[in-house]
Specification:
By secondary structure, this protein is mostly helical. The chain has 12 helices and 2 strands; from the N terminus they run ααααααααααααββ. Strands 1-2 form a two-stranded antiparallel ribbon. Keywords: Membrane, Transmembrane, Transmembrane helix. It comes from Sphagnum jensenii.
């Protein structure tokens, strides 16, 4: 007889992989001038923020699914505002990269996320230099350099935007730990969207007014804006953010990281089929393999250093529908796939990327839940 719990766990993992892949490819398709033809990444990201913030407001204020945290004006200005600015920047830069470089190459560049996070943590004083970590960072960097050298359609502007997005996300993760964790403030997926999305939207409106609005006004042809395309795109990004938490609550951060690696390979393969201009070379694959080995070792070292209690999350089961409280601790994780979709996978804690409020990333966010991790709905509505 098939174990229902195991089957459900595998279903959640499959859901996460599928959603993350769909969001990233969907964003690329929408932004590409060779496909849907809406080359306005800031506008697309603002749509994601507006949609996610609206859904969060309705669930928190109208349906009262969760109770807002004790957010004061001082904490909001000193912590949430700078974190929102960095989050908006990471999504803006990450989505802009789709205009210049392929999805496959973007996924390879995302391997630099642990490098950026480690360096930012050292600069901000939240981590100490370690020889084993440093050697892994060198290995990852060499792998990415080889992949870049082997990229047929290498574009300096696209690479610069993607790297800038990675640096902004890394700094956001570190500042989240400094500004929020030390103040004892924890935000669940819903309250994260509630507080961060509107502020990120406002920050994005500044570059939008200066850069994209004039260009959109001067467009000689009518903008290709299909309501259902943008609605489904934003919906996929939102659901992806929640799916990450659903998977972590069922399994654990390590399992999601492993699934993220599998997803990256699937995404790279699919992108070469869907977008003909995306070509892989032997150097691409070799370099990415080297970088990935460094990321795997990094994950192993981080998990090895984690407190024993964190490993129990791998055996966690989902809470019942009636359990209404989410209590979790932001942990030391990196964003491996900043989903670039503007998905907000756990905006305020640790994250992966893949699923940016998307990510990101593959705005995907990783955190290690405590034993009392509970969310409002059984499906736990995540880059």
């Amino acid at each position: 007889m098939i174990n229902r719990a195991v089957t459900l766990t595998y279903f959640y993992l499959l859901l996460y992989i599928v959603l993350s892949t769909v969001v990233i490819l969907y964003n690329k398709w929408v932004l590409s001038t060779k496909h849907y033809g809406f080359p306005y990444p800031i506008t697309l990201t603002m749509i994601h923020m507006a949609f996610s913030g609206s859904v969060a407001f309705i669930l928190v204020r109208v349906f009262k699914v969760v109770t807002p945290v004790g957010m004061t004006f001082k904490i909001y200005v000193s912590s949430v505002v700078p974190i929102s600015a960095l989050f908006a920047s990471s999504l803006w830069f990450g989505n802009t990269a789709y205009l210049f470089i392929s999805v496959a190459f973007i996924q390879m560049l995302k391997s630099l996320m642990p490098v950026a996070t480690f360096l930012m943590a050292i600069l901000c004083g939240t981590d100490k230099p370690r020889c084993d970590f440093f050697l892994n960072m060198v290995l990852v960097s060499i792998g990415v350099a080889i992949s870049s050298y082997g990229e047929i359609h290498f574009n300096l502007a696209g690479t610069a935007f993607q790297v800038a997005g990675i640096l902004a996300e890394a700094l956001r993760l570190v500042l989240t730990q400094i500004l929020l964790q030390k103040k004892g403030l924890t935000l669940n997926p819903l309250t994260s969207l509630y507080y961060i999305a509107p502020c990120s939207f406002l920050f994005l409106s500044i570059p939008w007014i200066l850069l994209e609005k004039p260009e959109m006004n001067q467009a000689t042809t009518k903008l290709n804006f299909d309501f259902w395309v943008f609605f489904t795109n934003a919906l996929c990004a939102l659901v992806l953010n929640f799916s990450v938490f659903l998977v972590i609550g069922r399994t654990g951060a390590l399992t999601v990281r492993v699934a993220g690696v599998l997803k990256d390979w699937i995404l790279i393969a699919l992108s070469t089929l869907i977008f003909p201009d995306s070509k892989l070379t032997v150097l691409n694959v070799t370099g990415y393999g080297i970088a990935l080995s460094g990321v795997v070792i990094y994950n192993y070292l981080k998990m090895k250093d984690s407190p024993p209690s964190d490993t129990t999350s791998e055996k966690q089961k989902l809470p019942t529908f009636k359990e209404r409280k989410l209590e979790r601790k932001a942990s030391d994780v990196f964003d491996h796939s900043k989903d670039e979709s503007g998905g907000m996978s756990s905006l305020l804690t640790t994250v992966d990327e893949e699923a940016p409020l998307t990510s990101s990333g593959d705005f995907l966010t990783f955190f290690k839940p405590t034993r009392r991790l509970v969310f409002v709905v059984k499906s736990r509505i995540h880059g």
